[in-house]
Amino acid sequence: MYFMPKLTVQGVGEFDVRAGKRLVKALIEDAGTDQLHACGGQARCTTCRVKFVEGEPKNITEAEKETLKVREVKESGVRLSCQIACDHDMTVELISRLEGSGRKDQGSPVADEIEPAPEWTTR
Fold first, then answer.
1. What is the CATH number of the domain that holds 19?
2. pLDDT, position 43
3. pLDDT by residue (tens digit) across 21-56?
4. Where do the record's region annotations for Disordered lie (predicted)?
5. How far apart are CA 84 and CA 111, in angstroms?
6. N or C: which end of the chain has fewer CB within 10 A?
């Protein structure tokens, strides 16, 4: 029996996702949303931002922490979905979508594993 974390996307629904799947990929592939990811999940931009309602991970990658700092993203609960693995139940609000962005597409392809190789720390 496999553990399937539950991803709840406000205004969209609840989805069982494969444990360890990158949140950005779960939002697109499982929840069918138009979540942005301009840099292809490399933690170089902030287009894949989501706001955690419940279940925000305590750990953060050094890459995410640095990008949030440089881009001056300080709002509580706002994280980069490309740097988070679905390893527990979580509820998120979409705040960075293709619709209304003026972009031609959601972004570059996203690898299955977190990139760059994660160095974990705390916020």
1. 3.10.20.30
2. 97
3. 999 999 999 999 999 999 999 999 999 999 999 999
4. 99-123
5. 13
6. N
